[in-house]
Design a protein that fits this description.
heterodimer; A: about 290 residues; mainly alpha; two-stranded antiparallel ribbon; about 75% helix; about 5% strand; globular; B: alpha/beta; Rossmann fold; 2 domains; four-stranded parallel beta sheet; 13 helices; elongated
Chain lengths: ~290, ~425
C-alpha cells in the first residue's frame, strides 16, 4: 500500500511536466493541423539553455524560464514563418511532418556539436530535496514543476479564452476561412500560435532537465511520448492532453513500481490502443472541429 | 572496469546489427584459406617493433577508444624512452574502426597481412574484441587485449587471448560478496535488494552477487531488472525503498547508477551497505552527478583508480600528466588497462629475450605478471584469475577497502545517510 501511494504521488507530479509539453503540441495541432515533430527537440533545446544559464551565470532553472520562454517563442514564430508558411496548402499537413522532423534533426545536430553527446543534468543544488508528508516523500522539484505546469496551463487557458488574440486563435481553429473573412489575420495567428506552442517547451525543458539526464538525442523518446499523449487526449484538446498526461504519468509510475519498468511503456500503449478502438477521437477530442 | 560494451541505447541496437554483420564476415573469413606466416618479419635489433591496434576513435566507443589510445601511446613513449624493447623502438600503428565490428575485422586483417606488424593489441569493447581476436588467432598472433572481458569473449576458447584486467567483467562484484560474507554472521545483512540494468555487462554482476548472498541465507526482498530506456528510475527505487533492505546492489552502468542514487536520496532510502558495479567508480563524474557529499560510503569495484597502490601507478600518473596534462582523477582506467597491455609485452621480452607471438603466448600462460591493474594470470583461454579491488568512497575519495592485503582503509559500515 505504501509503495502504491508513493508511486501515485510520483506519477501525478511527473505528469505535470508532460502535460505542459503536450499542451504546446496539441495547441499547434489545433491551430494549424500541423503535427510538430520538433516539439521534443524544443524541450531538449530549452533544457540545454537552462543548463547553460545555470552553469555559466548561476541563474536558477526556474528563473531561467523567463529568459528561455521568449527565445523559444521567437524561434517558433521564425520557424513557422520561414519553413511552414511557404508550404503549399493542399499538402501542408504531410509536408509539415517532414519539415518539423528536419527541424528536430537540425536542432539535434546543432546541440550535439555545441554540447557533445554527453548526458547532462541541471543541478541547481536542491534537486534531491524532498519533504516527508505522512511518511511519503514529496520531491520539491517535481512539486514545483507540477505547480508551474498548472500555472502555465492556466495562463494558456486565460490567453485563449479571455483575450482577443485567444479568440482569434480559437476562431482560426474552428474555421480558418470564416475567421479570415471576419478580419482575423490567420497567417499571423498561425505564426504566433506556433510560437506559443514552442514557448511551452521552455518551462517544460527546464524541469525535464532537472528530473532526467538528457542529451541531444533525448528528443526521440520525448516526441514519441508527446504524440501518444496528444493522441490519447484527443488531437487539439488541451484538457484532453492534461488528462492523458496524468494517465501516462500515473500509469507508468504504478506499473514500474508494482510490476516492472519493462512493462510500463507497453501498458500505456495498451491504454492508447483501447481508447483508439473505443473512442477514435481520443479522450476529449471532439468530433466537431475546434475543441480548444 | 568501466563500461565494457554497448552502453548507449541507440548504440546497442546498431551494435546488434553490426554484430550480426561481423558474425557473417567472420564466418566468411574463416572459410577462406591461405594464411601468411605470423613470424615472417625479422626481429633484428635496430628495426622498430611495430604494434598494430584498431581503436574506436569515432562512433559509440569513441570516448573509451581514445582513452585506450592515450594508454597505448603513453606506454610506447615510456618504453622508447627506456631504449625500447630488446633494443628496438616501439612503433604503434593505430587505425580507426569507428566502433564497427565489421571494420575491426578489416583493420586487423590489413594490419597483419599488409602492414605486417609484429604484434597486435586489442580494441575497445567485447563487441569488437570478439571478431578481432579471431583474426589474430587465424594468423597465429597473440592477442593481449585490455577491454574485452565479457563472457562471449572467453566462450570462444582462444588460447592466444589475454584479457588485461583482474577478472572477467561480469565478476566485477564478487569482491563485494567476499567482503560481506567475511563479516561475522551477526553483522551480515539479513535482506538484500537488487537493481539490474538489462545489459550483458551490468545485470550479470548483480546476478553473481545475488547467487552468493542467497546461498549464504541473505534474503532477497527486491529484485528488479530495468531496460536501458528507463528515463526515470524513481518509481522502481520507490518500490525497492518500501522493502527497506539492509544492502542494495546495483548492476549498473553510469546514468542509471546516478539515477538510482538521486532517487534514493529523494526517497530517503538509507541501506547499511550499497554497491554499484559501475558509475560510482568514476572519480569525476560520480561526485559531479550525485553531489560530492552523497558519495560517502558507496562501494564499487575497480582495477586501476587514482589512489591505486600498485608500485607502477605513481610513475604512470606522472608521465600521463606530462604527456596529456590533467591530474590523476582525469585518467580513465581504460588508459591504465591499455598501458598494462604494453607492460606485459615488455616483461615477456625481458624474461625470454624474444618478442615473437609464439613466445608471448606460451610465456604468458604461466606465472604472475605485475601490471597497473594488478598481478595478472590467466587460464588457458585468457580468463584472468584474479579479483577486482573493492573500493569505497570515504572522505570524498575512492579508497581500496578489501581484500585486506590491498586495503588502504577499513570498510565503512553502515553507510552514513545521504547528505541530501
Amino acid at each position: 500500500m505504501h509503495s502504491l501511494i508513493q508511486a501515485l504521488i510520483l506519477g501525478i507530479l511527473t505528469s505535470g511536466v508532460y502535460a505542459l509539453m503536450a499542451s504546446g503540441q496539441t495547441l499547434i495541432f489545433g491551430i494549424m493541423k500541423v503535427i510538430n515533430l520538433a516539439q521534443g527537440a524544443f524541450v531538449v533545446l530549452s533544457a540545454y539553455l537552462s543548463y547553460s544559464l545555470l552553469t555559466a551565470w548561476g541563474i536558477d532553472p526556474f528563473l531561467s524560464i523567463l529568459i528561455t520562454t521568449p527565445v523559444l517563442f521567437a524561434l517558433g514564430v521564425g520557424i513557422q514563418w520561414a519553413l511552414l508558411r511557404p508550404l503549399h496548402k493542399d499538402d501542408a499537413a504531410e509536408l509539415s511532418l517532414l519539415v518539423t522532423f528536419a527541424v528536430a534533426l537540425g536542432l539535434e545536430g546543432l546541440l550535439s556539436a555545441t554540447y557533445s553527446t554527453t548526458f547532462r543534468s541541471i543541478q541547481p543544488g536542491y534537486e534531491n530535496f524532498s519533504w516527508t508528508v505522512l511518511g511519503y516523500q514529496v520531491n520539491a522539484v517535481r512539486l514545483f514543476a507540477f505547480v508551474l505546469s498548472l500555472l502555465m496551463l492556466a495562463a494558456l487557458y486565460l490567453l485563449l479564452q479571455r483575450t482577443k488574440f485567444g479568440r482569434a486563435i480559437r476562431a482560426t481553429v474552428q474555421n480558418p476561412m470564416a475567421a479570415q473573412l471576419l478580419g482575423v489575420n490567420s497567417r499571423l495567428v498561425a505564426a504566433l500560435g506556433f510560437g506559443l506552442g514552442a514557448a511551452t517547451a521552455a518551462a517544460a525543458g527546464a524541469v525535464f532537465g532537472i528530473i532526467t539526464p538528457f542529451n541531444s538525442g533525448s528528443h526521440y523518446d520525448l516526441i514519441s511520448r508527446l504524440l501518444t499523449i496528444v493522441v490519447l487526449g484527443g488531437l487539439g484538446s488541451i484538457g484532453g492532453s492534461i488528462i492523458a498526461a496524468l494517465v501516462m504519468g500515473v500509469g507508468t509510475a504504478l506499473v514500474s513500481a508494482l510490476a516492472s519498468p519493462i512493462w510500463s511503456d507497453f501498458t500505456f500503449f495498451v491504454v492508447l490502443l483501447l481508447v483508439l478502438l473505443l473512442r477514435p477521437q481520443g479522450l476529449l477530442g471532439a468530433k466537431i472541429r475546434g475543441a480548444l | 572496469m568501466q563500461l565494457r560494451n554497448l552502453t548507449s541505447p541507440s548504440g546497442r541496437r546498431r551494435g546488434l546489427v553490426a554484430l550480426a554483420i561481423a558474425a557473417v564476415a567472420a564466418v566468411g573469413i574463416a572459410g577462406c584459406t591461405a594464411s601468411p606466416s605470423a613470424d615472417s618479419t625479422s626481429s633484428a635489433s635496430g628495426t622498430p617493433l611495430t604494434i598494430g591496434i584498431s581503436l574506436s576513435l569515432t562512433g559509440d566507443f569513441a570516448d573509451p577508444g581514445k582513452a585506450a589510445q592515450r594508454g597505448y601511446q603513453l606506454w610506447a613513449a615510456d618504453v622508447n624512452a627506456k631504449g625500447g624493447i630488446l633494443g628496438r623502438q616501439v612503433e604503434l600503428k593505430i587505425v580507426n574502426d569507428a566502433s564497427s565490428p565489421d571494420q575491426v575485422v578489416t583493420n586487423y586483417t590489413n594490419l597483419i597481412t599488409q602492414d605486417k606488424v609484429d604484434i597486435v593489441f586489442g580494441p575497445f569493447s567485447s563487441l569488437l574484441t570478439i571478431p578481432a581476436s579471431r583474426v589474430a588467432k587465424r594468423y597465429g598472433y597473440s592477442f593481449i587485449e585490455p577491454a574485452g572481458g565479457g563472457p562471449k569473449v572467453f566462450a570462444q576458447k582462444l588460447d592466444n587471448l589475454f584479457f588485461v584486467q583482474p577478472a572477467p567483467t561480469t565478476n566485477g562484484g564478487d569482491v563485494f560478496a567476499d567482503y560481506i560474507l567475511s563479516l561475522p554472521a551477526d553483522q551480515q545483512p539479513k535482506t538484500a535488494a537488487y537493481l539490474k540494468l538489462d545489459d550483458p555487462f551490468a545485470a550479470p554482476i548483480a546476478d553473481n552477487i545475488q547467487a552468493r548472498f542467497e546461498a549464504a541465507g541473505i534474503e532477497t526482498v527486491y529484485d528488479q531488472t530495468y531496460p536501458s530506456e528507463t528515463a526515470d528510475l524513481t518509481p522502481v527505487v520507490s518500490a525497492m525503498a518500501a522493502t527497506n533492505p539492509d544492502v542494495v546492489i546495483g548492476g549498473t552502468q553510469s546514468l542509471d547508477a546516478f539515477g538510482i542514487v538521486k532517487a534514493m536520496i529523494q526517497l530517503k532510502s538509507n541501506p547499511k551497505w550499497m554497491f554499484l558495479s559501475n558509475g560510482a567508480n568514476s572519480p569525476v563524474e560520480f561526485p559531479d552527478k550525485v553531489g560530492a557529499a552523497n558519495t560517502e560510503g558507496v562501494f564499487t569495484s575497480g582495477d586501476w583508480y587514482p589512489g591505486s597502490t600498485q608500485p607502477s601507478s605513481a610513475a604512470f600518473i606522472k608521465s600521463y600528466a606530462a604527456m596529456f596534462g590533467g591530474d590523476a582523477n582525469s585518467i580513465d582506467p581504460t588508459s591504465a588497462e591499455a598501458y598494462s597491455a604494453g607492460m606485459l609485452l615488455e616483461q615477456v621480452a625481458d624474461k625470454t629475450g624474444k618478442v615473437d607471438n609464439a613466445t608471448i603466448i606460451s610465456t604468458l600462460h604461466s606465472g604472475t605478471w605485475p601490471t597497473l591493474v594488478g598481478d595478472l594470470s590467466w587460464d588457458k583461454y585468457g580468463v584472468p584469475q584474479g579479483e577486482y579491488l573493492l573500493t569505497q568512497w570515504i572522505g570524498g575519495k575512492l579508497v581500496t577497502v578489501y581484500p585486506d592485503a590491498s586495503a588502504q582503509h577499513a570498510p565503512m559500515a553502515p553507510k552514513p545517510n545521504w547528505a541530501g
